[in-house]
């Protein structure tokens, strides 16, 4: 099965939207370059961002989102965004009244079941999980293989957190870093088994002295 990737553009202080669900300048990097990112020509990025983003997009088979995002976008009018084959919606509610049953959207109760359905649909392609509350739940469940973020040089101060309500420690591997124009692309593999190497009290005390 394809790996599960948690992804979003994010502010330097870790928010994917403000308190009113507005992304502000988080997606400005997608229109600030001179290399077309897709056939529409509406998205233009730097060459570095193109090389990083286009190869990633081409590997995505299914996107997992929460019902809140689905409702905000009006379900993308039944057409998965970005040319994705399928969208899995994590929700306790059924599809909206009048929803086209032939649309490639799947309404699933619970993140574990949603990821399982997404991996079934994706085959060996990537499953992308939108960062935020649902992404944080998938990470907390130990189902995320990689954390990807496009860090934009803005500080929100408050808003919707990239990791949602995650309140436990999760170790990540060293990042892969790509510098774009007005964006820093970061990719971290999730460390499945925490490093159990003992840390001496002296090392802990020295570290805390710099906090």
Compact overview of the structure:
The chain is an alpha/beta fold and about 210 residues long. It has helices spanning about 45-55, 65-70, 110-120, 135-140, 200-210, and strands at about 5-10, 15, 35, 45, 60-65, 85-90, 105-110, 125-130, 145-150, 160, 175-180, 185-190. It has one domain: Dihydrofolate Reductase, subunit A, CATH 3.40.430.
- Report mean pLDDT, rounded to a whole number: 91
Distance between the termini: 41 Å
Strand order of the largest sheet: 7-6-5-8-1-9-12-11
Radius of gyration, in Å, reads 18 Å
Shape, principal axes of CA atoms: globular
CATH superfamily: Dihydrofolate Reductase, subunit A
Helix/strand/pairing class, anyone?
Answer: alpha/beta
The stretches of 5 or more residues where confidence is low (pLDDT under 50) are: 195-200, 203-208
Q: Biggest β-sheet: count, sense, barrel?
A: 8 strands, mixed
The CATH first-level class comes to Alpha Beta
How big a fraction of the residues is strand? 25-35%
Task: Summarize the amount of helix as a percent range.
Answer: 10-25%
């Amino acid at each position: 099965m394809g790996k599960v990737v948690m992804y979003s553009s994010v502010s330097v202080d870790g928010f994917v939207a403000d308190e009113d669900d507005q992304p502000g300048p988080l997606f400005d990097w997608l229109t600030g370059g001179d290399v077309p990112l897709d056939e529409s020509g509406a998205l233009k990025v730097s060459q570095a961002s193109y090389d990083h983003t286009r190869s990633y997009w081409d590997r995505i088979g299914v996107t997992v989102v929460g019902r809140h995002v689905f409702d905000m976008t009006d379900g993308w009018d039944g057409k998965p965004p970005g040319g994705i084959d399928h969208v899995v919606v994590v929700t306790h509610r059924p599809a909206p009244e009048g929803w086209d049953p032939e649309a490639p959207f799947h309404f699933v109760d619970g993140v574990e079941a949603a990821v399982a359905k997404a991996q079934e649909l994706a085959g060996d392609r990537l499953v992308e999980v939108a960062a935020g509350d649902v992404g944080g739940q998938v990470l907390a469940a130990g189902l995320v293989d990689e954390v990807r973020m496009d860090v934009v040089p803005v500080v929100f101060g408050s808003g919707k957190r990239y990791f949602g309500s995650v309140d436990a420690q999760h170790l990540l591997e060293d990042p892969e870093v790509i510098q774009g124009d007005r964006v820093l692309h970061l990719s971290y593999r999730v460390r499945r088994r925490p490093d159990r190497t003992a840390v001496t009290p002296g090392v802990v005390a020295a570290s805390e002295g710099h906090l």
